[in-house]
Amino acid sequence: MRKIVFLAGLSVASFLFSVALKKDVSAHRNSAMGLECASCHIEGPQAKLVIRGVPAQFQPGKTYEVTVEVISKLRSKSDSRGGFAVQASAGELKVKDTKRTQLINGYITHTIEGNSVRKWSFLWTAPKDVEEVTIMAMGVASDGDYSPYGDAVAVEAVTTVRAKPKKK
Length: 168
Ligand code: HEC
Prior knowledge:
Number of helices: 1
CATH topology: Immunoglobulin-like
Distance between the termini: 28 Å
Number of domains: 1
CATH architecture: Sandwich
Strand content: 35-45%
Shape: elongated
Structural class: mainly beta
CATH superfamily: Uncharacterised protein PF12988, DUF3872
Bound molecules: heme C
Largest sheet: 6 strands, mixed
Strand order of the largest sheet: 2-10-9-4-7-6
Number of strands: 10
Order of helices and strands: HEEEEEEEEEE
């Protein structure tokens, strides 16, 4: 079962990668330009990405607070400590922390203030007409040199299924 969930996550991930925007290679401390961090951020140490707040089974229409954290031993030598992007295959992502996060083209990402932390929170409202949802996140723990080199990149996906209606 875990394997199936993992494979489902992977297929959603590759779908998201294919739609990720790749236009802007310029500075992006104020947001990430898509979900494919690892296509530019390379040669870094290991990192782990943790997604909290997504239940195993969701209640249709309910809003959940979700937290994404990049965990890495990598120290930053500046204010630039990290960044992230999240997409959901269904339901609605909403901003809760307007200082550190923003919504761009349907995905949640860091703002310039959010570039100085490695943990971000936002809201996800579960869909009413879908059985299974994958929430996909990518994050970078930066070394603070304002380059895409030497940063730690991590990816994670969680799948949640619609809760069964209670028996009468
Ligand atoms: C198209 C290439 C590209 C993609 C895709 C990309 N980045 Fe970057 N990133 C860069 C470049 C170039 C820089 C250096 C310029 C700058 O600091 O903005 C950078 C810098 C950063 C920094 C500051 C690094 C430091 O050491 O100070 C963070 C944080 C960051 N990116 C996060 C992300 C995240 C998170 C994603 C994916 C969700 C992502 N990036 C996707 C090209 C990319």
